[in-house]
Amino acid sequence: MSEVLEYDGWKENAIGEKFAADGAYLPFRGNTLICQLDQGSEIVSVISEMVEAMKAEGLARCYTFLPSASYHMTVFNGANDRARYLPAWPADLSLDAPMSACDRLFAQKLTDFSVTEFPVKMRIGAVVLKRGVSLSLAPMNQAEETKIRGLRDRLSHVLRCRRHNHDVYEFHISVSYLINPPVAEECRLLQRLRAVYLEKLMRVSPIIELNAPAFCVFEDMAEYRPVFRLV
Description:
Layout: H1 10-13, E1 30-36, H2 42-56, E2 63-65, E3 72-76, H3 99-110, E4 120-128, E5 132-139, H4 142-159, E6 172-178, H5 184-204, E7 207-210, E8 214-220, E9 223-229
Helix pairs in contact: 2-5
């Protein structure tokens, strides 16, 4: 049960930056490279079922749930308005340049960028309850790990930006963000639901195959608008 209560830092990561205290979306302009989940897939169906079960148990008090259309795995973070410092911001762009200029710069660089690494196979690891609800993902084997880590290195080199956790980035699918820490009874509910839906996810879709990522722009966490898909 202790894992559910480990929410140190969640305010810095979500409330006041990506979400208001009531869970409403705040402006959070940026761009990213993501593998969007097929809305007709079994994994999206099970995640959506889990979300509805959480809402039915009153857990919407604790979380702001993301729309299923936004479910994705981030391949490379890109840049955003809140991280205008090096090396998170591209080294060849002024720190005060508008996000639209960053979008154009990245689009130009990615137009002829080849992603021969895809498709890539990822395995589901856990339903994680820290600072929100997410599914942890890991490459299926060492060959897949080498492919996707190598791709991230290539993207960092071409786009000239890099996050502090670049080498140890943990792949995941975000489902919700924490807005109010759960009390003891809610923790018990979360543990029960986590066990039920992890078992179901492992039964219906333990391995997911992801196609080439799309370069997307976003205004907030609700929607990622594809500019184009890499090939």
